[in-house]
Structure formats: structure tokens, C-alpha cells
Amino acid sequence: MFNLVELDLRLVMFDEKRFIDGYDLKYNIINHLLRLNKFVFNISSHLPLNDQISLSSNEDCQLSFKDVQDNKVISYVDYFSDCKRGQCHIYSYPYQGKRYQSITNNFSYGLFESVREVSLFDER
């Protein structure tokens, strides 16, 4: 695995405490793959809202990517009080997936030429 030159990572993760962000990608993946030339990712992380004192903002998530080179990264964070959950979606741009799931009001801009299927989510 240390000799990977290209990595295309698609991940959906459920955690009790926090979202996956740029720090996770850098310290747990990128720093271990020294020959990595191309890194494409689409990561959706979810957590339950259980009286957390501090919740990550979209700005916090985007700032965590300041050291990830050669990638334009789009992120958005949503919290849904009615269903007591939060989600963070991070992906390298241009987006290369064929599906884009759970678009919300915080959906970011962009051109999505390969997307063929879209799902929307709204609490109301």
C-alpha cells in the first residue's frame, strides 16, 4: 500500500464524536503514501447529536484542508436538530461520482458533469 500512486477513496462513516476532515486525511492517509500523485475522494461522515458542547462548522472543516496540496476541496457541514444528527460531506473537485446523495440547503457550488442520480434531504 505504501507504493500507491493513485487513490480513489469513497467512504461513508458513522462516528460518535467527530467528522472526518483534512487533518484525518493528511495524518492517516497522505503522510503514509509517499508516492501518491493523485488523490480523489468523496467522504460523508455522520454523527449523532448527543449534547455536544462544541460542533464543527463548515469553516472549521474547510480550514482543515489548508495543507492538502493539489486538490480543490469542497466541504459542507449540516446539523439536523429534529433527527438529532450531523453530517459532513467533503470531496475533491471536480466531483467524479455518478451519484450525489443527501444534498441540503448548504450544498456548495460546482459543475457536476458525471452525476446521474441526486437525492435531497430537508428536515421540513
Structural write-up:
This protein has 124 residues and is mostly beta strands. It has one domain (6-95). Helices cover 10% and strands 38% of the residues. It has a four-stranded mixed beta sheet. A hairpin with a 4-residue loop joins β3 and β4 (85-93). The termini are far apart.
Describe, in short, the structure shown.
This protein has 124 residues and is mainly β. The protein is built from 2 helices and 6 strands.
Keywords:
globular, two-stranded parallel ribbon, mainly beta, 6 strands
Task: Give the secondary structure arrangement, pairings included.
Elements lengths: L5 E9 L7 H7 L9 E11 L9 H6 L8 E9 L4 E9 L5 E5 L13 E4 L4
Parallel strand pairs: 1-2, 5-6
Antiparallel strand pairs: 2-4, 3-4
Q: What is the N-to-C order of secondary-structure elements (H for helix, E for strand)?
A: EHEHEEEE
Mean pLDDT: 81
**Percent of residues in helices:** 10-25%
The strand count comes to 6
Widest sheet: strand ordering: 1-2-4-3
Instruction: Report the radius of gyration as a whole number of Å.
Output: 15 Å
Measured between the Cα atoms of the first and last residue, the distance is: 45 Å
Tell me the fraction of residues in β-strands, as a range.
35-45%
Which term fits the overall shape?
Answer: globular
Number of domains: 1
Unreliable residue stretches: none
**Which class of secondary structure composition applies to the elements?**
mainly beta
Oligomer: single chain
Query: How many helical stretches?
Result: 2
